[in-house]
Each structure stands twice: as C-alpha cells, then as structure tokens.
Amino acid sequence: MDKWIRRGVEVVAVVVVVAAAAAVTGKVLGERKMARKVEVAARAVPLFTDAGHIEQGRYLFGTRGCAECHGNNGAGKVVLQDGDMLVVAPNLTAGANSATASYTDVDWVRTLRHGVKPNGQPVLIMPSEDYNRLTDEDVGSLISYVRQLPAVDGMQARIDLPLPVKALYGFGAIQDAAEKIDHALPPSQPVPVAVSVQHGGYVANACIGCHGERLSGGTIPGAPPDWPAAANLTPGKQSAMKRYENAEAFMAMLRTRKRPDGTPISPVMPFESLARMTETDMRALHAYLKTLPAREFGNR
Predict the structure, then answer these.
(1) Residue 269 to residue 274: CA distance in whole angstroms
(2) 168: Cα separation from own chain's centroid
(3) Over the stretch 237-288, which tens digit does the pLDDT of each residue have?
(4) Dihedral sign, CA of 159, 164, 165, 168?
(5) Would you put residue 209 in left (φ > 0), alpha (ψ -120 to 50) or beta?
C-alpha cells in the first residue's frame, strides 16, 4: 500500500511540475505574442464635420459598445476588475492620459477596423472584429464623433491579465482581434437602413465579439470564470431565440434586461448599448437572427 501511495504522490508531483512549466512557457509566449508587430494595409476613410454624420457617429458610439467601455464622455474607465484581472479602457479624448492624442487619421482606422495599435502591436480586449465590417462612412462618422468630444482627464489605460489567461493566449486558445480579422476583406458596402434581413446582418456584426462569428455562443474566451456563456443566437440546440418568436418580445428583452418569464439576464450583456438602438435596428436584428442556420451551442 505504501508503494502505491508513494507512486501516487510521485505522479501528482510530476503533474504539478509539468503544469507549472506549461504555465510559465505559456506566459512567456503570451507576452511575446502581445509584443508582436502586425502588418496591415490600413487606409484612411472620409471624415466629417456636418451634423448628420456626427449624429450617426454618436449613435454608433452609444449602441455598438464604445460607451460601455470608454464611458459616455470617452474618457475611459475601469471595465473589469476580477481577481488578478484588471482592464482600464483608454481615454479617447484629448485630456490627460489620452491614448489617441497623437493618432493620425489612419491610426484611428488601423485600431478600430484592424485591431492594431499605431506601433503595430495588437490591441487586447477591444473587440475590433465587431467594427471591422462597418462601412467606410460609418467608420468615418464614428471617428469624427469621437475626435470632437471635449477633452476630459481620464485614467491611464491598463490591462493586467492573470497567468492562466496569458498562458491560454500564448498557446493560441484565446485570440486577439487582429488574429480573428480577415484584413484583406473589403469594407462592407452600404445597405438601406430598414427592417430587413440585410440590414439586420449589418447590425449583428456588433454581436460577434461575445457570441462568436457564427453567433452560436459558448464560453467567451478569456472572460472571468464567473461570466456566463454567451447564448446561442441561432435556431440550434440550446437556442435563446426560441423565447423570442416575435420582434416585440425581442425588443422588450433588450430594453428591460429580462427574459419573457421575467428572469433577469446577466449584466455582462451590454444592455446599456443595446437599449439605445432604434426600433428599426432592433427589428432588423431580430429578423436576421431568425434566418440563421441552426448551429450547435458553442460552435463559435
């Protein structure tokens, strides 16, 4: 018996040593990956000063998740503080601790559309894949709106990742936006703003950061362990959309943060942004989600 106990202890010790070595290796790989340079052929887009485009930029900023992380004033804020994980979104205004004060027109596009900083390193946390498919006009409107925001003093941008997350990132289990984006794909072409499947598909691009490119949900890579999995928005197994057979029920959920049975949905979902969407965008999004092919839950 003592021999078997001794062997069991030895096996556990080996496993612990191997796991520790893997974690350290993953950490080194993760830090190297964060510091890598990503070459992308970013190009400038038209920028605007007229009230119509600035208003469109304001709408996009408020409904596509920008305000959720950077605040309504664009000064940035603590987005996530969970154990060893700390994420402070950067100040987008020209105030103290501005991350964009020296940005050129192309730098804005490179960061927003490609997930790459002006120095060539990948952005972390920010879901640039959600914004990659915006039209040139919408990208220009969004940038134009942010650039005219009043200067506000903000916090210093900061991203602290716990060792397990950094290791998973280093080994490729977690990807940054620059890895997910097809940088050679031409920008989306404008479609009429209407309650249509086509426009709904355009709006749905804002959902892929959490729900995955195929919108089938599952565990959000790199999220804190207590975060719930993103819902399956396709008609497949464990589909959340079965609760929302009509647009009215879907819109009520976006506005009240509750399911039809009255149970609350996790605040991880960016309801502050979703509730600001127009009825046209909400109805179009619902129409589009109803046309998706069924996929297994988690088949991101």
Answers:
(1) 9
(2) 18
(3) 899 999 999 999 999 999 999 999 999 999 999 999 999 999 999 999 999 9
(4) positive
(5) alpha
